[in-house]
Write a structure and sequence with these properties.
This protein has about 40 residues and is mainly α. The chain has one helix and no strands. The chain is rod-shaped, with a radius of gyration of 17 Å.
Length: about 40
């Protein structure tokens, strides 16, 4: 996908922040979801 001619270095760098934010949000959500539970 990254080897297509329409993917220029400028377009690649413009999308990287969004990919980083989405990855961090997914990681935080999964960490919260599988995190320690309160015992009763």
């Amino acid at each position: 996908m990254y080897l297509r001619p329409e993917i220029t270095p400028h377009a690649h760098l413009a999308v990287q922040p969004e990919m980083l934010v989405q990855g961090l949000r997914l990681g935080a959500w999964v960490g919260w979801w599988i995190g320690p539970r309160e015992r009763k």
